[in-house]
Amino acid sequence: TNPILRVRYELICANRSDLKQIHALAKEEIGDSVITLKSLHEWYTANSASLWVLWQHAYSVLFPTKRLVGFFSVVPITRQATDKLLKNREGGYRVTVESIVPEGQKPTAWYVSAIAAKGEIARGRVVQQLQAFILAKANEAGLILAAPTTDDGLRITLENGLLPTDATTPELETIFYRDLNTAVMTQRNQGG
């Protein structure tokens, strides 16, 4: 046996070499509704800073291991894409590569396109890191948007104060939104 002595987690911006593992994890945890690997490569090319991975480093007596255990994708999107998402309440409009704002340019909104992790600890860490990322980006764009496709995604969306664009249908595939500036102000007022 090779007992684990210490485990640490590291969140970093994804590399192109991580995309195949990210896609496999997304399919395993989310299902077939995830974008194709080809589309993931296109999105990454459009803005590589929108995809973050959580690595688990386990240190043991014999050798260390490193595993990709989670990720999230928060895509900076254009005014056009934001307007289409807000108007298309059922979530039928999908963000395309043309909707992605290049690095260094100011987006209108952030679109949470995916979040997944393997295991309870990794899930908790990914959600925590996603929340911190969103709050850190509040000064760059005024809105956060999401269209959860799983029950877990819907739960996380609702727990983080995102509201359905159609208040009568807080369901899967519905577009949810939250004003990030309000989120920052609420946190500051609560002493955060």
Walk me through what this model shows:
By secondary structure, the protein is an alpha+beta fold. 34% of the residues lie in helices and 27% in strands. It is built from 6 helices and 7 strands, in the order βααββαβαβαββα. The chain has helices at 19-29, 37-46, 79-87, 120-136, 151-159, 180-189, and strands at residues 4-13, 51-60, 65-77, 109-117, 143-146, 163-164, 176-179. The radius of gyration is 17 Å and the shape is globular. Residues 184-192 have low confidence and may be disordered.
Keywords:
192 residues, alpha+beta, 6 helices
Regions with little confidence, pLDDT below 50 for 5+ residues: 184-192
Percent in helix:
25-40%
Distance from N terminus to C terminus (CA atoms, Å) equals 44 Å
Taken from the alpha-carbon principal axes, the silhouette is globular
Going across the biggest sheet, name each strand in turn.
1-2-3-4-5-7-6
On the 0-100 scale, what is the average pLDDT?
Answer: 86
Largest sheet entry = 7 strands, mixed
Strand count: 7
Gyration radius, in Å: 17 Å
- In terms of DSSP E residues, the strand content is 25-35%
List the total number of helices: 6
Query: What's the SSE pattern?
Result: EHHEEHEHEHEEH
**Derived structural class:** alpha+beta
Could you give a quick summary of the protein structure above?
With 192 residues, this protein is an alpha+beta fold. It has helices at 19-29, 37-46, 79-87, 120-136, 151-159, 180-189, and strands at residues 4-13, 51-60, 65-77, 109-117, 143-146, 163-164, 176-179.
